[in-house]
Design goal:
Largest sheet: 3 strands, antiparallel
Shape: rod-shaped
Strand content: 5-15%
Strand order of the largest sheet: 1-3-2
Structural class: alpha+beta
Helix content: 40-55%
Radius of gyration: 28 Å
Length: about 170
């Protein structure tokens, strides 16, 4: 919106001018300008020269005088930038998701073991999977690692009679 308000003062702006006037971070500004100037034909509020899908610092933007809409409020779809998330960001996001899932798996194990007090390994894995399948599908190896972690922290203990049976410690 603030990009369009700039055009009340001047007929055309370069990318650099828009960036200095609006103080919008480069990534977000490019995405917004792509939506306004390179998006769907009936949604092009701005015209860009030269006409290309990439935005350079020397590109010039002007108001599209032919743009019209029957609607009072115009919805403009945001364009997806070519590289929305870099590899380090993707790995960091993945790491955060895995950490959250570890806690959810542990919580499910403790919840089940609190109710049952004793549970066989395969039955416990099946119940944890059934409990969490609405959110995500935990792998049996991830569940096993979380069980081992709970044993180390003394929430669970293996049965002395049968090594496949876990007991909950209150």
């Amino acid at each position: 919106m603030c990009i369009l308000l700039l055009f009340n003062r001047q007929q055309s702006y370069t990318y650099k001018d828009i960036q200095t006037e609006s103080n919008i971070p480069e990534k977000e500004l490019k995405r917004a300008l792509l939506s306004l100037a390179v998006g769907r034909i009936q949604q092009r509020v701005l015209q860009k020269s030269p006409k290309s899908k990439e935005i350079a610092s020397t590109d010039e933007f002007t108001i599209n005088d032919q743009f019209s809409s029957k609607l009072i409020r115009v919805k403009i779809q945001t364009a997806i930038a070519s590289k929305s998330e870099t590899d380090p960001e993707r790995q960091e996001t993945r790491q955060r998701v895995d950490d959250d899932r570890k806690h959810e798996i542990e919580a499910a194990i403790v919840r089940i073991m609190k109710a049952r007090k004793e549970q066989e390994h395969n039955v416990l894995i099946a119940e944890v999977t059934g409990l969490l399948k609405s959110r995500f599908m935990p792998s049996p190896s991830a569940i096993k690692k979380r069980i081992e972690s709970l044993i180390e922290r003394e929430y669970l203990v293996r049965s002395p009679n049968d090594r496949k049976v876990y007991m909950y410690l209150a």
